[in-house]
Amino acid sequence: MKYLVGANFKMYKSQKDLKEYFDQFVNNYACFVNIDLMIAPMTVCLGTASEMTKDSCVHLGAQNMHYEEQWAFTGETSPVVLKELGAEYVIIGHSERRQYFSETNEMINKKLKAALHHGIRPILCIGENLEQKELGISKETLKIQLREALQGIDEVEKIDIAYEPIRAIGTGKSATPEGVQEIHEYIRSIIGNEKSRIIYGGSVNDTNAESLISQPAINGFLIGSASLDPQKFLKILDVVSKSESVKK
Ligand code: 13P
User: Fold this and answer.
1) In this model, does residue 247 exceed pLDDT 70?
2) What is the CA(104)–ligand 1 centre distance, in A?
3) Distances (CA, A) of 48 to 18, 52, 60, 175, 185
4) Where do the H-state alpha helices sit in 58-208?
5) pLDDT by residue (tens digit) across 114-164?
6) Residue 53: its H or E element
7) d(CA 139, CA 222)
8) Given pLDDT bands bounded at 50, 70 and 90, which one contains residue 64?
9) d(CA 119, CA 105)
10) What are the pocket residues of ligand 1 if the criterion is a CB atom closer than 6 Å to any ligand atom?
11) pTM value?
């Protein structure tokens, strides 16, 4: 199994910023044999990003998509177009989409099915909020998210899972490596296949990456803030490339 390390740029980086980023990043990034690297810029920048990363080892991803190929849905993006723009991955069900755009597990389930149908590899995001953690229902919450999102999908091995506890996103306070290890083992026991990567997201940076990736059940990262700085992101990739915790 290769690690999966993803950058989620969210609504940061204009086309001009991306050019500066990729000038530094692509020139300094040597392909790592043990890592699949995914970068998800804003959807409107995917075409430009595709041009900038061609002949590199960077795989592009989208941050969201609609489940229909075409319909009268003003402002939405079709999986067909994502594919045309060069997206190989798509992040589905990020907590910011659940929270600010009212995405439900039912919608997420449809999006996963559509992505698989169109040959785009989904990264399904799940995670509990602080209240759920304090109530001691983290695992129950994750189980429901997984069960409903994956309902009727028999190709779960074509989906990667990102565990992103909401309290850890953008706060500078990552979950503990041991805590993430325990949750990832739990997720693995539910999805029941060894091929999906179970990656962690939430304040991963160049200081905590090593202790996190040394946990055997952490198969990579989904990174927000620290991926915006190409030097920091390269440092994290370097740490992951030297880790041998992932299953061969
Ligand atoms: P941060 O790395 O900024 O905490 O964001 C994580 C995230 O939301 C990745 O999808």
Assistant:
1) no
2) 20
3) 9, 6, 11, 35, 38
4) 79-84, 95-100, 105-117, 130-134, 138-149, 177-191
5) 999 999 999 999 999 999 999 999 999 999 999 999 999 999 999 999 999
6) helix 46-53
7) 20
8) very high
9) 21
10) 8, 94, 164, 169-170, 201-204, 222-226
11) 0.96
Tens-digit pLDDT profile for residues 21-39: 999 888 777 788 899 999 9
Pocket test for ligand 1, best of 160, 164, 228, 229 (most atoms within 8 A of CB): 164
Distance, CA of 121 to CA of 159 (rounded, Å): 6
Residues in the chain, how many? 248
pLDDT on residue 246: 64
Question: How far is residue 103's CA from residue 125's CA, in Å, rounded to a whole number?
Answer: 12
| Distance from the alpha carbon of residue 171 to the mean position of ligand 1, in angstroms | 9
CB distance 212 to 204 below 8 Å: yes
pLDDT tens digits, 214-238: 999 999 999 999 999 999 999 999 9
Q: Amino acid identity, residue 118? A: H
Percentage of residues of the chain with pLDDT beyond 90: 92
pLDDT of residue 248: 53
CA 88 to the chain's CA centroid: 12
Q: How far apart are the first and last CA of the chain?
A: 6
- Residue with the two structure tokens 């992103």: 164
Any catalytic annotation for residue 164?
Answer: yes
User: Closest ligand 1 atom, CA of 170?
Assistant: 4
CA of 127 to the centre of ligand 1 (A): 12
Q: Compute, in angstroms, the gap from residue 5 CA to the centroid of ligand 1.
A: 12
Q: Of ligand 1's atoms, which has the minimum distance to the CA of residue 203?
A: 4
